[in-house]
Amino acid sequence: MDESNLSPRKRNNDDPKKHQEQSGRQFRFGIGYLITSLLALWLIQLLTTVLFSGATEIPYNEFKKKLAAGQLVNITIGARSIDGKMKNPTPNAFPPTVPFTAFPAPAGDPKLIEELQNANIPYRFERPPNPIGEFLLGYLLPMVMLGGFWYMGYRRAAGGAGGIFGVGRSKAIEVKPEDISVTYKDVGGADEAIAELQEIIQFLKAPEQFAQLGGHIPKGVLLVGPPGTGKTLLAKATAGEAKVAFFETSGSEFVEMFVGVGAARVRDLFEQARRAAPAIVFIDEIDAIGQSRGGVMRLGSNDEREQTLNQLLAEIDGFKTDASAPVIIMAATNRPEVLDPALLRAGRFDRQIAIGNPDLIGRVEILRIHSKRVKLAADFDIERAARMTAGFSGADLANAMNEAALLAARHKAVAVTLNDFEVAIERVVAGSEKKSRVMNEQERKTVAYHESGHALVAELVPHGEPVSKISIVPHSRGALGYTMQMPTEDRYLLTIDELKDRIAVMLGGRAAEIVEFQIISTGASDDIMRATELARRMVVEYGMSEKLGSVRYAGQQLQYLGTSVEDNSQISPETRQAIDEEVQRLITEQYQRAQALLKDHREGLKTLAQQLLAQETVSGNAVKEALAKNSASEAIATSKHGEESRKAVEV
């Protein structure tokens, strides 16, 4: 028999040394617990008797003396004791009576009733206790409680992962195959990732087909991509396609304050997966426990995160299941650069699948999926809606479609129109409108010329993206206005001229302020930041500087989270100065270029700004109309100038 096909519990029983150690551990625990539980039961009954009685125990001869002296009241005669109250020996003391308990001889006192009657002391006989109730409360209930603690402790001593109160149990949610309703039909824009996962499905459905040629079933699949690209949905859809059990958990659920709990949960998760095989184990945000163990000094050698990662690596290495019941581990992260190299080596996460933001075709598929339950207008153009959302992730598209449906419902519309979707995009990108934020007339005029400058430069540069809408209505995310551009297609390669045009468009707002008011404001802070970042990337990443050449000067980039960390430790001060000079040159050239374009079309700038001041929001057609009026004005001015020159020559 192949030893690799045995279950872990059976392999442990077949190992004599491990079996002997486990039996010894269980025996020592049983003996120690038995002695401890008996002592605890005796102490509980003793303390209960003392605490709940509250009476003073007196000798029986003293009881007879106080009875003869008439110092007793309210006597209760029980089967084993005599209880009552005796008068306080101190006059005018509080309380006036003190409870007592006396124990007569086993044979009893036959003259006690006669003496009580002669002394005129009230007495009564105690009802015999119910033996069943006394047994249940006094013995059975404590034994059941102690037995429960024994069972949990016994499992812990036997090597189980539950631990006391289930602290070491895995928090993974098990979804049965029949309960998984998500398939690849519910996933859009991830055709390449689905094609790679098809092989995993074949492994789960027909593992013997690959085992015949000596192939091994892959252990792990790592899904890498920005947030909101559908990594979790894709993993669940894979389980739905393969019709296998699905265990869903998160990396943060393994990390606790107590060292060793995370490792116990990892062991328990893998044990559950083995029992439910074939199955898929999905660990979301695996970077919570899989961060690199080198390069950062940590206090303490028994760090909980490190212990959990070590246990995860050990389980993956020893993760051998029956060839007819395979188990695949899937994980997702948007920070692959921080993962430990031991986690990514061959034999652990054998497959790494990159999932990016969807392209135009993918966005069309995603919008169709999310619009199945939304009532769209008859003229709703999904392809045009997809073109308006370039760079959106699947989660962004779902949010935009949902916002459009909510907006149409607030307006009591019968269907969602494309205009509702455009407003929803604005809400997702810039936030909700803040019409209550009142700007004075000069501020409104400055914002109008600023946004008009962006729009006109975008229309005038050779590679500018078409403008779809311009607004000077303030929004909740700090924007006093915005210019929305709608690309005609997805771009993956950009030339130096196209990047320069983008910088010119970003600086068009500041250039318009200079052209019209000869003074600048703080409204261009975000434009300057984005333009500077793009110019710096052109110099240090793309090698688009003739002075510095085709050399990369940028450090490590955290590409999935949208932030970057540059390592300039190996760049000389002279090179840093040259980089700054080149960035400044690019910015200055495009800033001057934007000013020159707006000066040549000043009439169009004024026309578009006046229209914005009157309407607050205009479409992209207003830009073309303003430029057309500017051209007509220039033609009239040129014609008048030519007529005057001709008359002067005739004279």
UniProtKB/TrEMBL annotation:
<feature type="binding site">
    <location>
        <position position="454"/>
    </location>
    <ligand>
        <name>Zn(2+)</name>
    </ligand>
</feature>
<protein>
    <recommendedName>
        <fullName>ATP-dependent zinc metalloprotease FtsH</fullName>
        <ecNumber>3.4.24.-</ecNumber>
    </recommendedName>
</protein>
<keyword id="KW-0067">ATP-binding</keyword>
<keyword id="KW-0482">Metalloprotease</keyword>
<dbReference type="GO" id="GO:0008270">
    <property type="term" value="F:zinc ion binding"/>
</dbReference>
<dbReference type="GO" id="GO:0016887">
    <property type="term" value="F:ATP hydrolysis activity"/>
</dbReference>
<dbReference type="InterPro" id="IPR005936">
    <property type="entry name" value="FtsH"/>
</dbReference>
<feature type="region of interest" description="Disordered">
    <location>
        <begin position="630"/>
        <end position="651"/>
    </location>
</feature>
<keyword id="KW-0479">Metal-binding</keyword>
<dbReference type="GO" id="GO:0006508">
    <property type="term" value="P:proteolysis"/>
</dbReference>
<dbReference type="InterPro" id="IPR000642">
    <property type="entry name" value="Peptidase_M41"/>
</dbReference>
<dbReference type="GO" id="GO:0030163">
    <property type="term" value="P:protein catabolic process"/>
</dbReference>
<feature type="transmembrane region" description="Helical">
    <location>
        <begin position="135"/>
        <end position="154"/>
    </location>
</feature>
<feature type="binding site">
    <location>
        <position position="450"/>
    </location>
    <ligand>
        <name>Zn(2+)</name>
    </ligand>
</feature>
<feature type="binding site">
    <location>
        <begin position="225"/>
        <end position="232"/>
    </location>
    <ligand>
        <name>ATP</name>
    </ligand>
</feature>
<comment type="similarity">
    <text>In the C-terminal section; belongs to the peptidase M41 family.</text>
</comment>
<feature type="binding site">
    <location>
        <position position="527"/>
    </location>
    <ligand>
        <name>Zn(2+)</name>
    </ligand>
</feature>
<dbReference type="InterPro" id="IPR003959">
    <property type="entry name" value="ATPase_AAA_core"/>
</dbReference>
<feature type="compositionally biased region" description="Basic and acidic residues">
    <location>
        <begin position="11"/>
        <end position="22"/>
    </location>
</feature>
<feature type="domain" description="AAA+ ATPase">
    <location>
        <begin position="217"/>
        <end position="359"/>
    </location>
</feature>
<keyword id="KW-0547">Nucleotide-binding</keyword>
<dbReference type="InterPro" id="IPR041569">
    <property type="entry name" value="AAA_lid_3"/>
</dbReference>
<keyword id="KW-0862">Zinc</keyword>
<dbReference type="InterPro" id="IPR003593">
    <property type="entry name" value="AAA+_ATPase"/>
</dbReference>
<comment type="similarity">
    <text>Belongs to the AAA ATPase family.</text>
</comment>
<comment type="function">
    <text>Acts as a processive, ATP-dependent zinc metallopeptidase for both cytoplasmic and membrane proteins. Plays a role in the quality control of integral membrane proteins.</text>
</comment>
<dbReference type="InterPro" id="IPR037219">
    <property type="entry name" value="Peptidase_M41-like"/>
</dbReference>
<feature type="compositionally biased region" description="Basic and acidic residues">
    <location>
        <begin position="640"/>
        <end position="651"/>
    </location>
</feature>
<keyword id="KW-1133">Transmembrane helix</keyword>
<keyword id="KW-0812">Transmembrane</keyword>
<dbReference type="InterPro" id="IPR011546">
    <property type="entry name" value="Pept_M41_FtsH_extracell"/>
</dbReference>
<dbReference type="InterPro" id="IPR003960">
    <property type="entry name" value="ATPase_AAA_CS"/>
</dbReference>
<dbReference type="Pfam" id="PF01434">
    <property type="entry name" value="Peptidase_M41"/>
</dbReference>
<dbReference type="GO" id="GO:0005886">
    <property type="term" value="C:plasma membrane"/>
</dbReference>
<dbReference type="Pfam" id="PF00004">
    <property type="entry name" value="AAA"/>
</dbReference>
<keyword id="KW-1003">Cell membrane</keyword>
<feature type="transmembrane region" description="Helical">
    <location>
        <begin position="27"/>
        <end position="52"/>
    </location>
</feature>
<dbReference type="Pfam" id="PF17862">
    <property type="entry name" value="AAA_lid_3"/>
</dbReference>
<dbReference type="GO" id="GO:0004222">
    <property type="term" value="F:metalloendopeptidase activity"/>
</dbReference>
<feature type="active site">
    <location>
        <position position="451"/>
    </location>
</feature>
<dbReference type="GO" id="GO:0004176">
    <property type="term" value="F:ATP-dependent peptidase activity"/>
</dbReference>
<dbReference type="GO" id="GO:0005524">
    <property type="term" value="F:ATP binding"/>
</dbReference>
